Amino acid sequence: MKKGDERALPEGRLEERFEEKYAAYSHGEALAEASRCLYCVDAPCMRACPTHIDIATFIKKIASGNLAGSAKTILSANLLGASCARVCPVEVLCEGSCVYVAWGRTPIAIGRLQRHAMDHGASPELLTKKPDSGRSVGLIGAGPASLACAGTLALLGHRAVIYEKSAVPGGLNTSGVAPYKMDAQTALAEVDFIRALGVEIQTGKEVGRNLSAGELLERHDAIFLGIGLGPDSRLIAPGADGPGVHGAVDWIARMKLDPKHSLEGVTRAAVIGGGNTAIDAARELRGLGVPDVKLVYRRGEAEMSGYEHEWNEAKQEGVVLVSNALVSEVVRTGKRVNALALVRAEAGNPTDQRLDPLPVDLVLVATGQAKLRDLAALFHGVQLDSKGRISADSSTGQTGNPRVFTGGDAMNGGKEVVNAAAEGQNAARAIDALLAAR
Ligand SMILES: Cc1cc2nc3c(=O)[nH]c(=O)nc-3n(C[C@H](O)[C@H](O)[C@H](O)COP(=O)(O)OP(=O)(O)OC[C@H]3O[C@@H](n4cnc5c(N)ncnc54)[C@H](O)[C@@H]3O)c2cc1C
Ligand code: SF4
Asked: Would the CATH topology of 14-125 be identical to that of 245-365?
């Protein structure tokens, strides 16, 4: 798969300073690794993949030199096979389930092999397209859920039009994923691949602002809501509003996409939170050369919700945990942030005990993202659950409005790219069945 249009993103973005965590395999390395696979009949790796890629088969095809066949096996289960190869938490999914792990041996490097097949074998021509059905589907948001859904719909013969509010498509695959796993340009290459299947993407179209739900329902036979999550949660403490305190997802997006974004004058940073976004942001700050990076978390290390393997790597890279601590104030000199006042937390709740203040120049808040409740409510019959997720049939994504489907973070509350891909594809098949029946 080729890199995205090089003109799409300006040069001088901070993310360009990162090296890839895992370099691409050479053909020899891929062959050697593929030959270690036992091609298990009841492959546990395959069961652990939310898209159920036939891993044993695609690896066997690499071993026999059939890279196009290998890519076809991957794509027939997961149209986002290129990004999933780079960003999936394979340690807890396919590779974590490989039979080698049970024997105390190194698992097959499934992610790296998948990347090898996709880089050298994938092309849109591998996939068969059904004749034009004359039906059309409108998809809101150009993140992984909509991309996987739209690509599948296009292959099933339907017109698929994605409306994306940002200027750059790809959702968090482009704007959120850590650059050492996948840079924005690579995410855009996958968007181009989905376009090549016949999907139309209109950027700068925000449903609820310059495009109405009613217009979309009139224009299309069915709708897919792939809207993801909303803005970062705010830090509620005196002094928190102002320069130097940012939502982590927003900061990461600017680090990846905005050439004007800079870290000048930042030598001490704190990230608030204990999940994967907090760990990513802290590692990114260290990777960009900030010498002092602290993770401030209200509970203990064992209770952090981020992946253990990611946290272990963050510690090795020099990120330091300040556990059982809550921010009571952001202390400023004029407008500039210079410290965080902290109190001790017990079971995540504040106590009266003050801790030493933490000197900082920058604070990133990674304590969660809001749900886009108002947007979902624009579609008649679409309901939310008590956590603000869009209520839908988990196997089809069909909401309370039979013509409106959903998937990805908006439905699951925030999981992984591979879950968004799986749910988007499931919804596409359900939409296809609905259109066939009408
Ligand atoms: C910082 C960060 C790092 C992550 N790292 C990883 C990782 O390494 N591996 C992994 O597997 N997962 C990772 N994830 C999770 C993963 O990115 C998400 O699960 C996935 O992107 C969800 O896809 P989605 O399509 O549901 O939503 P999104 O990717 O959020 O896409 C939603 C899209 O909808 C658009 N949109 C919203 N409202 C409107 C509107 N009104 N009109 C038009 N468009 C709209 C948005 O602009 C966006 O482009 C990470 C998440 C974050 C926050
Ligand atoms: S479990 Fe491991 S050895 Fe078996 S098919 Fe999967 S990758 Fe190959």
From this structure: no
201 Cβ closer than 6 Å to some ligand 1 atom: no
Ligand nearest to the CA of 41: 2
- In the predicted model, what is the mean pLDDT of residues 373-381? 92
User: What is the CATH number that goes with domain 131-165+204-230+370-437?
Assistant: 3.50.50.60
To test the pocket of ligand 1, the residue of 177, 233, 246 to mutate (highest count of ligand atoms within 8 Å of its CB) is 177
Looking at the CA of 251, name the nearest ligand.
Answer: 1
User: What digits encode the pLDDT tens for the residues 121-139?
Assistant: 999 999 999 999 999 999 9
Alpha carbon separation from 154 to 131, 281, 346, 376, 428 (Å, rounded): 10, 36, 52, 24, 9
Q: How far apart are CA 26 and CA 67, in angstroms?
A: 13
pLDDT tens by residue, 83-123? 999 999 999 999 999 999 999 999 999 999 999 999 999 99
> Average pLDDT of 271-276?
98
Q: Given CATH 1.10.1060.10, say whether it is the number of domain 14-125.
A: yes
Query: What's the confidence (pLDDT) of residue 8?
Result: 73
Q: Pick the residue whose CA is nearest to atom 2 on ligand 2.
A: 98
Q: Residue 141 phi/psi, 5° resolution? A: 95, 135
Whole-Å CA distances, 346 to 101, 304, 306, 354:
37, 14, 20, 12
Does the beta carbon of 226 lie inside 6 Å of ligand 1?
yes
State whether the beta carbon of 83 lies less than 6 angstroms from ligand 1: no
**Token pair for residue 232?**
């970062």
Please give the pLDDT value at position 41. Answer: 87
- Is the CB of residue 34 less than 8 Å from the CB of residue 60? yes
Query: Hey, is 351 helix, strand or coil?
Result: strand
The answer to whether the CB of 231 falls within 8 A of the CB of 245 is no
Q: Whose CA is nearest to atom 13 of ligand 1?
A: 416
Residue pair 141/226 in contact by the 8 Å Cβ criterion: yes
